[in-house]
Each structure stands twice: as structure tokens, then as C-alpha cells.
Amino acid sequence: MRTKYIIGNWKMHGDKSSTQVLLTQLSQAHISRSTRVHMVVCPPFVFLEPTQKALLDSAIAWGAQNVCSEPIGAYTGEISASMLQAFGCQYVLIGHSERRILYHEDAEQLAKKIEQAVACGIRPVFCVGETLQQYQAGETQAVLTQQIQDVLKKLDPILFQTALLAYEPVWAIGSGISARPEQVQAVHQFLRQQVAFYDVALAQELAILYGGSVKAANARALFSAPDVDGALVGGASLVASEFLQIYEQCLSTSV
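Above: the chain sequence. Below: its structure as C-alpha cells.
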């Protein structure tokens, strides 16, 4: 059985006080050190140090929301993979739709980011997903195929062995609309098939997470799908009780 993951993407939310409250609530919760389900939080860069301190002795891991495609140099405002490694980051989000759309990150950049993360022992969480216009035009599979192939063809497949894949339909992010479980399962199965073109064993072992208005109310149904290996959670990860419920539901469907 594949390991499952519940990853909280805090995006650009929170301040020093509210972040500390959230970290305290999470660190005091009973999170099993189970190998079946791992909990991860991805705070803004400026909160990595307090996150490391708060969660160091807990079963919760932490990661970053982005990483530079270069290892070092005159890249004002960027954060390198080695810097993230120094703060104990075990995961990093790469290719999130907001980075693709707002900051025009392309396949070449994303492939380099994966290389940098893996070189520093950090697990990439590679995000793919279609826009509302693409979804309505029936282009979901074509878009996802291109997003995966454009990056994988630039990488040695071995670099993807530590990665996680996250399907996040752009039309469902922050909209309150979540794809139906049967839709999610169909897409996850399709994604696994696409990865299998490069490496069959990797495709079977690869954890594929769903991201798109995941909350406690719909989590159990989503996690019951055989190819859904957890969730990339946005807004609900900012509320400790909600995030913990999502974790518990993932744990209960992983027996």
C-alpha cells in the first residue's frame, strides 16, 4: 500500500502571532508516527524557523512553497534548496498553478527546481492541473499530459523517484467547488498511466494527492478512491481543527 500524505499549503496567509497559535495547536495534537499517513505543513518562507522549532519533536514534517531553480548566485528574493535544507525542510511545492499562472514558470524552470530539490534531499511535490476554460473545453487529459511530459522529458526519471504528484484543478482551488470523487479518481488513474509510460514501477509507487477545496466534509469520499493518496490542502490547513480532521479521515481510510 502506498504511503499517503496530508500537506497544508498556507500560501501567503498568517502573521507572526496567528502562525504561532496554529503551530502550537498542531504540535499539541496527537499525530501518529504512522508510516501510513504523513502530515506536512508548508508555511511562507519567513515562518520556516518558528515552524522548525515548534514541530521539531512532533510527527509533523514541514516544507516550502517554492524553491529557486539555481543553487546560488545573484537572484534577489530567491531561496535556494540548500537554504531550505538548512531549516529542515523535507518537502517543497513545485509547479503550483499560482506559480505557473501568476509568475509564468515554465517546464524548464520546473525541471531545474526538481533537480535542485532532489540534490538537497528534499522531496518535490509536483503540481499539475487544468484551468476552468480547459476543463470546460474537455482538454483536461491533454493539458495534464503536456504538463507531465514537458517536465519528465527534461529529467532523468530517477530524479522523480522521491517526488509526489499533486493534481489540483485550477477551477476548484479556493472556489469552494471540489471535483466529484469519481472525477478525481479518473484523473488520478490517468496520471498514473502517464507516469507509467516512463517507469511502470514508479507509477505504481508514486503518491498522487488531490488539491482543490479539500475540507473535512468531502475528505473521506475523496480518500476512498483507490488512486487518491492524500491531499494538498489550502484554506482548510489554516484551521487546526479542520486540518486535523482531514488527517484523521485519511488515516481511517488507509487501513
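DSSP finds eleven helices and eight strands in the chain.
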